[in-house]
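[step 3/7] fold_predict: job queued, chain A
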Amino acid sequence: MFDIGWSELVLVGVVALIAIGPKELPGVLRMVGQWMGKARKMAAEFQGQFQEAMREAEMADLKKSFDEVKEAATGFTSNNPLTSLQKDVSDALRVDALDKPAEISSATSVEPPATPTTPAAPTPETFVEAEAHAAANEPLAITRDVEPAPVAQDTAPSEAIKDAKAS
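[step 4/7] structure written:
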C-alpha cells in the first residue's frame, strides 16, 4: 500500500529507538498498534458499507429492469388473440367443472335425472316358483357341469418337491 520495504522499516525503528529512548519505546509501539487496529477496523467498516450500497444499487437496477420487462409482457399479451384462445381452451378443459351439476337455464325445460330405486322385496310367489323348479329338478339357470381332472398321486416325491423342501 505505501510501498515500504524491510530496510526502510529497520531505519524507522533505529530512528525511533534513538529519538524516543528504550524505556518509552514499548508504550509507543503499543499505542501505534492500537491506532493501526482502529484504522483497520474503520476501513473494514467503510468497505462493508460501500459494498452494501453497491448491492442495494444493483438490486434497484434489477428491480427496475424486471418491472420494465413485466410491463412489456403485459402489453404484449393484452392484444394477443392467442391468449384469449388459450384461456377458452383451459376453461373448457377444467376438471373441477365435471364434479358440479350443470346449470339449468329457465328458458329450456330439462327433466331432472332419475333417482335410483332399491329393488322390491321378494314376494311369496317368488319362493313358490323357486320351489317348483327345485321339485322338478330343473336349474333356475343353465350351467355347465365341470368335472375335475383326476390328480395322479406319486408314492415317491418328485425332484421339485425335494428342492422346495431343501430350500
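[step 5/7] annotate
The radius of gyration is 50 Å.
The first helix runs from residue 6 to 20.
exit 0
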